[in-house]
Amino acid sequence: MPRIQLVVIQPTPFCNIDCRYCYLPQRTSKAVIAEQTIANLFSQVFASGWAEDGLTVIWHAGEPMVLPIDFYRRAFRLIDQLKPAELGLTHAFQTNGTLIDDDWCAFFAEQRVNIGVSVDGPGRLHDVNRVTRAGRGTFDRTIAGIRRLRHHGVPFHVISVLSAESLAAPREMFDFFVSEGIDRVCFNVEESEGDHVSRSFGEAGIEDAYYRFLREFWRLAAASPGKFAFIREIDEATRVVLRPKEAVFFNQLVEPFAITSMDWAGNIATFSPELLGLKNAGYDDFILGNINRDQLTELAEGPVLGKMQADIAAGVELCRQRCEYFSICGGGEPVNKLAENGSFVSTETTFCRMTKMRATDLVLDLLDLVGQRSTELSDAGIRSLGTELPAGGSRSDALPLV
Amino acid sequence: MSLPQKYLKVVSELVTPGAIGVALLLGSAAPAAASPDPAGQQSTRAQDERVSERLAAIREAVSAVSGPQTQTEGRAGDQRLAWHNGWGNGFGFGFGNPWGNFNFGQPWNNWHNWRNGWGNW
Fold it and tell me: Could you tell me which residues are beta bridge partners of residue A230?
């Protein structure tokens, strides 16, 4: 039976800005989801028995905050009325931050909404890609929104897309986050997806640049305890590498319906959320069906899902056979395989070499450095014992602390 | 020293009661920015041991150090051990619920009192 952990809703494809790396083709459309579509989705999600406790509903691309607060009040109330009492559910927004004001902050606090703000670093880095339709930078408006959140005590994290320029500037990125009191950070890389071809992926040495960025950011963060509560790429890589053998690994992105995505029209997709909105004749644009017409549980038996699932599973199997990093990845991200390799039935991508392999290499390298340092200290302690131990005496209290 | 022995030693030190957060400890070992590129070092990719074997040895070591508690308590939260949802340029999803019951980095529900944190907590 599928387990839905994350529901991604695109309440409108419209976005009020026009980032250069955006892969969403319909971001000028001002269509808005109908309340009935929301009701159809959640009544079926809850009736299916597939929803996991702790379900997250993320209101996502285009820009969710172009819709009024009242829209979300009604939507949240509707979902709450349909939800089984015992099921935990959290709402989340991923926003460009430009529309955050005091009223939104009050709403977020009242509804305990998880907020993620997209900001790519200080103005000179952010404004390279995150621009209006007129081509003007959006940094000033985004940082004003972040400061509003902080002013109201609304917890949030940021997602920063790393370009070749920001990868070369870990200290500047670090100083920016610290100066703005941003203590929960996630890094994305500029990916090739849909029609967007990553500029970063074409740069020579980009994978090592990612390694160096992460290493330096990690070093700086470790040297400033208390400045960060969460650095997603570091925390995740560490916990995935340093896990007990009994822990079962689960890659949401290759499990049907673990992430269930719906657009404004009620079209349903799964696996990588970016697939919803992309065109592909071979997989019927990745749309499994429409919640206003079809039964969610029947979509699991549909031909589109069957074809995607078979191909994605074949790609995962290739990863299992060929990749040294399979145990920390679980078969990668389907959308990247398709965009970079032209097929789900494939293995390595630049995306996975950067974000999974190099991140894992870094944890392994640091573990080795900790081990070497500890050995050196122990050896020094043993030598010290040999020369300084008083005859017949114990010096255990003099052993070096490691 | 064999791989299992090597990582058992390292992991044991990382989880020493009272030790600072693992992320802090590992980050403190990172060389400064001016250090050579990983390709020029005795880095992960240059070593003889296969990455898959090293990762397996680390998991064995974590299990050995954390003890039977892992095996009984680890199941409840194991599905949370998903690689990050860093999907999409500028999009994605960060972590759990920061409003209360703040829990973004503990995939195994108290399987061990070892914090994967950034502070002395």
Answer: A184
* In the predicted structure, residue A292 carries a pLDDT above the cut 50: yes
Query: Above 70 in pLDDT, residue A130?
Result: yes
Distance (Å) from the alpha carbon of B46 to chain A's nearest alpha carbon: 11
Average pLDDT value for residue range A359-382: 84
Q: Which of A273, A302, A307 is nearest to A288 (CA)?
A: A302
Q: How many CB pairs under 8 A join A and B?
A: 290
Q: What is the pLDDT of residue B37?
A: 54
Mean pLDDT calculated for residue range B67-73: 51
Question: How far is residue B23's CA from residue A135's CA, in Å, rounded to a whole number?
Answer: 39
CB contact under 8 A, B79 and A248: yes
Burial A31-46 (b: 16+ CB within 10 A, else e): eebeeebbbbbbbbbb
Model pLDDT for residues A243-291, shown as the tens digit of each residue: 888 887 778 889 999 999 999 999 999 998 889 888 999 999 999 999 9
In chain A, residues with a C-beta closer than 8 Å to the C-beta of B79 are 3, 5, 52, 248, 250
Chain position carrying tokens 């990719």: B45
Distances (CA, A) of A260 to A32, A62, A266, A389, B88: 19, 17, 12, 66, 15
Of B13, B87, B96, the CB nearest to A273: B87
Residues of A within 8 A of B94 (CB-CB) are 114, 116, 157, 159, 184, 186, 230, 232
Task: Confirm whether the ipTM is greater than 0.85.
Answer: yes
Q: Angle of helix A334-341 relative to helix A303-322, nearest 10 degrees?
A: 80
Tell me the C-alpha distance between A332 and A316, whole Å: 7
B14: which 2 tokens? 């990382």
Check residue A275 and report its DSSP letter: G
H or E stretch at A146: helix A139-151
What rounded mean pLDDT belongs to chain A? 90
Ramachandran area for residue A121 (φ above 0: left; ψ -120 to 50: alpha; else beta): left
